[in-house]
Specification:
The structure holds 2 protein chains of 2 kinds. By secondary structure, chain A is an alpha/beta fold. Chain A contains 5 helices and 5 strands; from the N terminus they run βαβαβαβαβα. Chain A has a 5-stranded parallel sheet with strand order 2-1-3-4-5, sandwiched between helices. The two termini of chain A are 15 Å apart. By secondary structure, chain B is of the alpha+beta class. Helices cover 64% and strands 9% of the residues of chain B. Chain B has 17 helices and 9 strands. In chain B, the strands form 2 sheets. A 5-stranded mixed sheet of chain B has the order 5-6-7-9-8. Chain B has a 4-stranded antiparallel sheet with strand order 2-1-4-3, with helices on one face. The radius of gyration of chain B is 42 Å and the shape is elongated. Chain B starts with a helix and ends with a strand. The chains are: A alpha/beta, B alpha+beta.
Chain lengths: 117, 571
C-alpha cells in the first residue's frame, strides 16, 4: 500500500511516516498543505491519502471531496486532533472517506480500516 | 486680510468724499439741479443701507458700497469733464458700473455668486463694459468731438478713425442682451430660493428688474439713433439708484416684522417632543434644509439631535451661532440665501434656548451611549478574537506535541518497551489529550468558525448528558452573532445538565425579520435567574453587546426557557 501523508505539523508527519513504515506501508510522499497535496496525488498516484481535516490553505474536507471526484481516486482517510464527537454524530463526512482521530492512529488500525470495503 | 467691517467703513467714506467732489464740481459749473440733489440723496440712503447690513452681511456691504462708489464716479461724466483725473475716474466708473450692479444683485444676500452661470454672466458683463469703454479710447479720433478732446486721448491712432457709430450700436445691442439675461437670472433666483429667503430677495429683485428695464431702454434709444439720455430715462435712472437701497431697507424691516413667528415658535416648542426642535426651527425660519448643530464642548464638535456629527462648512450653506461666541450653545446651518434673516434666526435661537439646552443634553447622552455600545461591542469582539487565538495556539502547539508523543509511545511499544509502563503512559496521555480538547473547546469551539452554528449546535446536543432535540437551519450568520448564540446554547445546556433535574431539552435557532432567535427550554424544576457575576448575566451582557436581548422564563416546577434575540443585519 502506497501512502501519502498530508499534515502541516512536522513532528506528526515524521512519527507517522515511521509508524506506518514499520506497519508495512510504503510512505511515498508527504505534503504540508492542500495545494501541494493535490500536486503530490497527481504525481505519485498513492493508494491511500492520510489527510488532516485542518490545513493552512484549505479545509481537508474540501480536498477530500475534490479527490473523490477524480477517476482512480485514492482511498482517503481523514484525521484530526479532534475527536469524533467534536464533529457531531450527524456530521456529513465526504463520500467514501473514513475518519481516524490522531490519538487513535496506529498501523494495525489503519490496515483494518482499509480492509473494509 | 482687511477686516470686512473696516473695509465697509473705508468704502463708505470714499463714496461720500467722491460725492462731495461731484456736487462741488457741478455747482462750480453751474449745472447743479434737482436731479443732482436727488442723486446725492439716493447715494446717502445707499450708504446707510450698506452700513445697516454690514454686521450681518459684511461682504454684501462692501459690494453695495463698491456699486455706489462707481455710480458716483459715473456721475462725474455730467457735462464732459475736462481734467484728466476726473476724466479717468469717470471712465472707470462707467466701464465697471453695470457689471458691478449685476454682481451686487446676484450675490445678494451672502455676497457670493451661487453657480457657474451667474459667474459666467458677471465675467461677460465686465468684459463688455471694459471693452466698450476702451474701444473709443484706442480707436477713436479726438477730432470727432471738439468739446471732448481732453477726455478722448486716442492712444493708438490719430487722424483717420473708425466709424464709431457702428461700434456704439454693437455695444448697445450687447448691453441689451446682457440686461435681458440679468432679468432671467433674477427670476430664476426668486423661483429657486427657499421660502424664508424670498421676503428679502423679492423687493431687491423688483428694484433690480426696474433698473435693468431702464438700462435696456437707454440702449434701445441709442439703437434708435437717439444718441444721449432723454430726461425721462435720466430720472428713471435716479429712481433705480434709490430703489435698491430702499429694497434692502425694506427687507430688513420685513424681517423685524417677521419676529412674530418667533412667538409661535415658543408655543410650538412647549409641546415639541425631543428630536423635533430642528423641524420647529426649520418651519419658523422657512428653510426646510435647516440643520441644527449642537455644540458639545467636551468633544469639541457639532452634532445633530441624534448625536451624529454635523458638517457645518458645506458649500452654499451659512452658519449662525447661537449663544456666546466663545462657548456657543448651538449653530444653525442654513441656506446662505437666508443670511439677511440673521436677526430673525438669532431671535428664534434665543426663543428656543431652553429646548436647545435640552436637545444638547439628549444629543450628548445619545453620543455617549453610542460610544459605550460601540466600545462594548469592541470589547466582546476583542475577547472573542483572543479566545480564537488561544484555541488555535492550543491546537497547533501543546495538542500536536501530545499527539506526536502518542505516536512515539506506540513505536516504543513495537520496539520492546515495558508494556505495563507504556500502557500507563498512554492512558495518562489520552487523559491529558481529552482534557486539553475540552479546554480548547470551552475557550472557542473550532467547529463553530469552521462549519457554522448548525454543526456546532448539533455537536453540543450530541455531547450533552441528556437527550437534546436541536432544530437548527444550516444558515450562516456574522461570526459575532454565531459566537454569542453558541455560548448561550452551550451555557444553557450546561445549566440544564447541572441544575434543572430535567429529562430532556430542546434547542431551536431560527431567523426572523433580520433577527436570530435562539431558544433553549427544558422540562426541569425551573427557578433559574440571572445573578450578577453568574453565567446567565455574562450571557445577557454578551447578547446585549450585539444590541440583542436575553430573557429567562423560569417558573417554579414549570421548566426553564432561555431566549436570545440578536439582530443580524448581514449574514
Amino acid at each position: 500500500m502506497r501512502v501519502l501523508i498530508v499534515d502541516d505539523h512536522e513532528s506528526f508527519r515524521r512519527l507517522a511516516v515511521r509508524m506506518l513504515g514499520e506497519a508495512g506501508f510504503a510512505v511515498v510522499g508527504e505534503a504540508v498543505d492542500a495545494a501541494s497535496a493535490l500536486g503530490a496525488v497527481a504525481r505519485l498516484a498513492p493508494d491511500v491519502v492520510l489527510l488532516d481535516v485542518v490545513l493552512p490553505d484549505r479545509s481537508g474536507l474540501a480536498v477530500a471531496a475534490q479527490l473523490a471526484a477524480e477517476p482512480a481516486a485514492p482511498r482517503v482517510v481523514l484525521t484530526s486532533s479532534r475527536s469524533r464527537s467534536d464533529f457531531g454524530q450527524s456530521f456529513m463526512w465526504p463520500a467514501g472517506c473514513s475518519f481516524v482521530p490522531k490519538h487513535e492512529l496506529s498501523g494495525a488500525g489503519l490496515t483494518a480500516l482499509l480492509q473494509q470495503p | 486680510m482687511i477686516r470686512q467691517p473696516a473695509a465697509a467703513w473705508a468704502a463708505a467714506a470714499a463714496t461720500l468724499a467722491l460725492l462731495v467732489v461731484d456736487v462741488v464740481r457741478q455747482l462750480q459749473l453751474g449745472v447743479a439741479d434737482t436731479g443732482l440733489a436727488f442723486f446725492a440723496f439716493a447715494t446717502c440712503v445707499g450708504v446707510a443701507a450698506a452700513l445697516a447690513v454690514a454686521r450681518w452681511q459684511p461682504r454684501m456691504a462692501v459690494l453695495i458700497l463698491a456699486w455706489l462708489l462707481l455710480s458716483v464716479a459715473d456721475d462725474l461724466g455730467v457735462d464732459w469733464p475736462t481734467s484728466r483725473p476726473v476724466s479717468t475716474v469717470w471712465m472707470l466708473g462707467t466701464a465697471l458700473l453695470p457689471a458691478t450692479y449685476a454682481l451686487m444683485v446676484l450675490a445678494y444676500p451672502a455676497g457670493r455668486l451661487r453657480d457657474r452661470s451667474e459667474r459666467a454672466f458677471v465675467a461677460v458683463a465686465y468684459t463688455v463694459g471694459i471693452v466698450g469703454m476702451s474701444f473709443p479710447l484706442l480707436f477713436g479720433d479726438p477730432r470727432d468731438c471738439a468739446d471732448c478732446a481732453p477726455r478722448v486721448p486716442s492712444l493708438l491712432f490719430t487722424g483717420t478713425a473708425l466709424d464709431l457709430g457702428v461700434e456704439a450700436h454693437v455695444f448697445a445691442a450687447a448691453f441689451i442682451a446682457l440686461g435681458l439675461a440679468f432679468i432671467a437670472l433674477i427670476v430664476r433666483r426668486l423661483l429657486q430660493a427657499p421660502p424664508g429667503a424670498r421676503i428679502t430677495l423679492f423687493p431687491l429683485g423688483l428694484a433690480a428688474v426696474f433698473a435693468a428695464g431702464d438700462f435696456i431702454a437707454q440702449r434701445v434709444v441709442v439703437l434708435a439713433g437717439g444718441g444721449g439720455l432723454t430726461p425721462t430715462l435720466d430720472w428713471l435712472d435716479r429712481f433705480a439708484t434709490l430703489a435698491l437701497p430702499l429694497a434692502i431697507l425694506f427687507g430688513i424691516a420685513a424681517i423685524r416684522r417677521r419676529r412674530g413667528p418667533v412667538g409661535d415658535l415658543v408655543v410650538e416648542l412647549g409641546s415639541a417632543r425631543p428630536g423635533e426642535v430642528r423641524a420647529a426651527l426649520a418651519r419658523t425660519l422657512g428653510d426646510p434644509s435647516l440643520q441644527l448643530a449642537l455644540w458639545l464642548p467636551e468633544r469639541e464638535e457639532f452634532v445633530d439631535e441624534q448625536g451624529g456629527r454635523v458638517d457645518i462648512a458645506a458649500p452654499g450653506r451659512a452658519m449662525t451661532l447661537l449663544g456666546p461666541e466663545q462657548e456657543p450653545l448651538a449653530a444653525l446651518v442654513h441656506d446662505e440665501r437666508l443670511v439677511a434673516q440673521r436677526p430673525l434666526i438669532e431671535a428664534a435661537g434665543a426663543a428656543a434656548r431652553l429646548a436647545l439646552e435640552n436637545a444638547r443634553l439628549q444629543a450628548q447622552l445619545r453620543a455617549q451611549l453610542g460610544e459605550l455600545r460601540a466600545s462594548r461591542t469592541r470589547l466582546v469582539d476583542a475577547a472573542d478574537a483572543e479566545r480564537r487565538r488561544l484555541e488555535r495556539d492550543l491546537h497547533d502547539g501543546a495538542q500536536q506535541r501530545l499527539l506526536a508523543l502518542g505516536l512515539a509511545l506506540q513505536l516504543l511499544r513495537d520496539h520492546g518497551g515495558d508494556p505495563q509502563l507504556l500502557e500507563q503512559a498512554e492512558a495518562e496521555l489520552q487523559l491529558a489529550l481529552r482534557e486539553l480538547r475540552d479546554l480548547a473547546r470551552g475557550i472557542h469551539p473550532a467547529i463553530l468558525s469552521e462549519q457554522g452554528l448548525a454543526a456546532a449546535v448539533r455537536s453540543l446536543a450530541d455531547r450533552s448528558s441528556l437527550p437534546v432535540t436541536a432544530k437548527v437551519a444550516d444558515d450562516r450568520y456574522p461570526l459575532a452573532v454565531e459566537t454569542a448564540a453558541y455560548f448561550v446554547i452551550s451555557e444553557a445546556l450546561a445549566n440544564v445538565a447541572k441544575h434543572a433535574d430535567a429529562h430532556a431539552a430542546t434547542v431551536s435557532v431560527a431567523r426572523m425579520n433580520g433577527h436570530l432567535l435562539v431558544e433553549v427550554s427544558d422540562d426541569g424544576r425551573g427557578g433559574a435567574a440571572a445573578e450578577a457575576g453568574g453565567g446567565l448575566q455574562g450571557l445577557a451582557d454578551r447578547v446585549g453587546a450585539l444590541d440583542g436581548r436575553l430573557t429567562i422564563e423560569s417558573a417554579d416546577a414549570g421548566g426553564t426557557t432561555i431566549r436570545a434575540d440578536i439582530p443580524c443585519a448581514s449574514s
